[in-house]
Amino acid sequence: LCESTLNNTESSSYRYLILDPHYTGPLGNIKIITEKGWCGWKLQSFWKSNVHYNLCLLPPIRSNRV
C-alpha cells in the first residue's frame, strides 16, 4: 500500500483479511490462530507507512463468476 492509499479517507471503512503465512502452530486450532492475530480482519490503521509489506492480492470476485 502506498502513502496515498494509507491517507485516503474514502477507504477508511475498508477491512483487510490478513492470513499470515508465518504461523507454525498446530493445524486446525482456529481459536489460537484468530486470537493471536494470525488470521483476521484488520482496519486501515493496521498498515504503517514506514513498514514494507509483501502482499498476495487476489483478483476481485464477480457475482456471476467463481
TrEMBL record:
It comes from Schistosoma japonicum. Belongs to the peptidase C78 family. Residues 10-56 form the UFSP1/2/DUB catalytic domain. Keywords: Hydrolase. This is SJCHGC03363 protein. InterPro entries: UFSP1/2_DUB_cat. One of its GO terms (molecular function) is deUFMylase activity. The lineage of its organism: Eukaryota, Metazoa, Spiralia, Lophotrochozoa, Platyhelminthes.
